[in-house]
């Protein structure tokens, strides 16, 4: 696990296990087991295990989070909405990291980042509550200067930049623009003293330009790894993603 940021040999890889649970829940059975996936991901090189306890429990369930916490050798990054229920669960389970994310009931996936300025006091209070429970707080936000400055005001030590627009870009020009927004956002975050993570929609085909950014400390990736695992096996899917990240970061460092 890399301890320093930025400019480590690779960003940390947070493997998101949500969609292992999606597959389990589709049949109402107890397999595939997200706990087994988490432990195997750690053995294959994951630095962090990320899981999103959605309010509607569409994939990860409370029991998964509770059972996994004492088993992990790395870190648990629990993603949750900014609600009293979720904050109470997080404080009881005490993951090392909590990432606060916006949720909409009908969305297929997380559509955007937190609107921090509009709920500054509520977010500040949540950050204080989590910090008092010994939890490091991350805010999932769009790579937007206004949001990054607002995040700094909450005293949360970490931000995670939403890479969804980058991942969904329709052409090379659009992708380059989105990459530039993320690079500038990461630079600003680090300048403000924040740890800067990124994630959402990243895939084997688009991860390297993001992993190359020296200011990015951690990438959280799930759906692509679960999907690729169908063809190459779970551990190989994790190893391949980590290898792409290391290669991209090393190449960028060599060029610098
Ligand atoms: C915040 C984030 O990007 C992930 O938690 C992602 O949202 C998980 O997958 P779903 O959005 O499909 O639940
Ligand atoms: N925070 C982003 C994340 O955990 C991974 O999301 P995805 O790779 O499943 O889109």
Question: What does the average pLDDT come to?
Answer: 95
- The sequence of SSEs as H and E is EHHEHEHEHEHEHHEHEHH
The 3D shape can be described as globular
CATH architecture verdict = Alpha-Beta Barrel
Count of folded domains: 1
What oligomeric state best describes the polypeptide chains here?
Answer: single chain
Radius of gyration: 17 Å
DSSP, total strands: 8
H/I helix tally: 11
CATH class: Alpha Beta
GO molecular function: pyridoxine 5'-phosphate synthase activity
Keywords: Cytoplasm, Pyridoxine biosynthesis, Transferase
Function: Catalyzes the complicated ring closure reaction between the two acyclic compounds 1-deoxy-D-xylulose-5-phosphate (DXP) and 3-amino-2-oxopropyl phosphate (1-amino-acetone-3-phosphate or AAP) to form pyridoxine 5'-phosphate (PNP) and inorganic phosphate.
Main location: cytoplasm
């Amino acid at each position: 696990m890399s301890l320093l940021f930025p400019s480590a040999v690779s960003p940390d890889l947070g493997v998101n296990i949500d969609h292992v649970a999606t597959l389990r829940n589709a049949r109402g059975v107890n397999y595939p087991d997200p706990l087994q996936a988490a432990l195997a991901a750690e053995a294959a090189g994951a630095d962090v295990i990320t899981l999103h306890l959605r309010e509607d429990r569409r994939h990860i369930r409370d029991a998964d989070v509770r059972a996994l916490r004492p088993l992990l050798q790395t870190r648990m990054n629990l993603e949750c909405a900014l609600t009293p229920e979720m904050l109470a669960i997080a404080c009881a389970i005490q993951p090392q990291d909590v990432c606060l994310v916006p949720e909409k009931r009908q969305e297929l996936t997380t559509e955007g980042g937190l609107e921090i300025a509009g709920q500054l006091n509520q977010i500040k209070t949540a950050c204080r509550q989590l910090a008092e429970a010994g939890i490091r707080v991350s805010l999932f936000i769009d790579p937007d200067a206004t949001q990054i400055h607002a995040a700094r005001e909450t005293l949360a030590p970490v931000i995670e930049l939403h890479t969804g627009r980058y991942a969904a870009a329709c052409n090379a020009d659009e992708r380059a623009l989105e990459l530039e927004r993320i690079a500038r956002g990461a630079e600003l975050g680090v300048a403000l003293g924040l740890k800067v993570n990124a994630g959402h929609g990243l895939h084997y085909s688009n991860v390297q330009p993001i992993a190359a950014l020296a200011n990015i400390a951690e990438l959280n990736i799930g759906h692509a790894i679960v999907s690729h695992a169908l063809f190459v096996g779970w551990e190989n899917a994790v190893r391949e993603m980590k290898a792409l990240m290391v290669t991209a970061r090393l190449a960028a460092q060599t060029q610098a």
